[in-house]
Amino acid sequence: MRQFLQRNARLFLTTFCVFLTIQARGQAPAAPPQSPNNSGAGRQSPPQTPPKKPVAPAGATGSTPAARTPAGAGTVPPGSAAAARDGLDPTYLEFEVLGMRFRPPVQSIMRADGSGLTAQWTISERADPPRFVLRVSRLIASDATSTPAQQIDSYVKSVSERPSPNAVFAVRSRKEFELDGRPAALLYTSLREGTGEDEVSAVQGYFILQTAPNEFVVISSLLAEQDFASVSQLLERSFRTMQVANQAALAEERAGRIARGDHLLHGLDAEAMRRALDPVGPKGEAPTPRWYRITRVDATGDVKDVGYMTIVVIDAAQGLANPDRRESEWTKVEKERGLLVRVQVRTLLDATGTAFSDTEARYWTRWDRGREFWTVRSTMRKDRASSTSTQLGIRSEPTSGSPRPILEVADVVPKEVATAPRRWPIPDIGYLSQAESLVLPRFFPKVVAPADYGFYCFDPRSGRLAQRVDRQVPAGKGFSIATQTTLEAPAITQLVDERGILLKRSSDDGSVIEATTGQALLDLWQKKGLPTK
Fold it and tell me: What is the pTM of this model?
């Protein structure tokens, strides 16, 4: 079993950063990758005028919007059945921030780090270990006349001249070509450093496509020596599917879907929002929570239970969203009623279930959408030890001193220095509250063709107020929704019924959430010896 990816992670990141620093000399180097804050409750969302038009090819002009779909949920090219036999996924990965897309190898998974034009994306094969790891980024060169070939020349010269007695560097292959009329280049090198047990070696690759006079899309790759011949051909086929969108058309499309999202939200009066509530019992009993099983397929193909989730949507006072406040203590404001979404998640942290995380999240928004409040409490448990972190979110009504609504989010994490709450002015259009984001499919209209919607919404994973994209596609009696919680994030795809109730959701980390019943889940977990209390 090849261990080069684990052993050579440092080499991969080091040489990648060296490349960016050399090529963009005189510019700020790309921000280092940061681990995403994975939310146990899951997240993500998209609009566009149906039917969608094909993506504008490189060099396209005019005002026709380039067809954009959430990362991981792109359009399928003609002849997709045959196309899949070339080893590539028939669905495009979309990189709206970079204004491009391409077809990755089949069974690829993607993770985004950072935001905006400094973001980086890591793509790897869904295998253990994967045969390749890719990193996608944007590069701005200091020389306005630079080309991909010159970028490679500079990199090879710099690395070849580095004084290192225990390093061996060699060029394996090199190509320069045009892709849809744009200069491109592809380089593979062998790099070995260290001696004995400390030796690390790998085949490093760089694909560079020029998108503007001094701007490039760069895809660096890492693969094992024994996989070079076959995998390098697969990757080249993938890179050659890259398409660059027309930027003016892309901006026009982005504005259009935000307008569609805002139009949808303007129709959410109290009556429309109440239609999202779960039904009460025949005698007025509180709604029964919906249960979901969370699984992940491991490298051997076995389905592993990694958690479960319950969700219930009710009419409630704001005070119920704060588990630390008794009803007798509620203020006049806390007694105001609205839509409350309560989510409970248990996530297993090891295979035996001796370590796990419990999350209790309560999201509330008033019926007129004028205020919102939420609390998220996560407790990590291992034997008798536990550690709890909390998040509090508040959006208050405008006041004379603060005429524009402000969203404040505060996090309290054990053993970390407390920080001031983060604050964002609420956008004038398209703002989606946390409670609404969790039941958004229940607000969608019935459609007969794909429709895209854009919103501004707080993203728990990246911890920022960001643009969100949701694409609604008819599917049977219900529809599927591909959601990006940020423009950089890969899409999360969910299937919902005709009411917009979640049936199944597939996340970018490979986990799957499927509807079940509490009794069925209890029986299954007891049979497997997993913790149910």
Answer: 0.80
